[in-house]
Write a structure and sequence with these properties.
Number of helices: 1
Order of helices and strands: EEEEEEEEEHEE
Radius of gyration: 13 Å
Helix content: under 10%
Structural class: mainly beta
Strand content: over 45%
């Protein structure tokens, strides 16, 4: 029984920062790929950032240099630090976790979430101009 619970969303002005957290229960973060996806109205879901079991990270081109994904394995919590936010970052953000241990985050990112078995309910991030 796995649950992913996001927190830290809200509204912020362009140029500001937010930090999202995802608390995982019934899950071992240290052996799995975890990440963040987002979906804006009228747009397809896209991968934002992932972190592999070995600590390597993957980012969408649109967020490179602005977002940082990290994970605290001791408390099974995933984070997304978002800086220099832009209006186009406005979306529902979803915490995601792979169902298979040691799966490759690069594949999950490239195939838009294939291999993700667990999803959070989503948290809204709104960036005003």
């Amino acid at each position: 029984q796995v649950q992913l619970v996001e927190s830290g969303g809200g509204s912020v002005q362009a140029g500001g920062s937010l930090r999202l957290s995802c608390a995982a229960s019934g899950y071992t973060a240290s052996t799995h790929c975890m990440g963040w996806f987002r979906q804006a109205p009228g747009k397809e879901r896209e991968g934002v950032a992932t972190i592999d079991s070995d600590g390597s990270t993957n980012y969408a081109d649109s967020v490179k240099g602005r977002f940082t994904v990290s994970k605290d394995n001791a408390v099974n919590t995933l984070y997304l630090q978002m800086n220099s936010l832009k209006p186009e970052d406005t979306a529902m953000y979803y915490c995601a976790a792979a169902g298979t241990s040691y799966s490759y985050c690069s594949r999950i990112m490239d195939h838009n979430g294939v291999g993700i078995d667990y999803w959070g309910k989503g948290i809204l991030v709104t960036i005003s101009s």
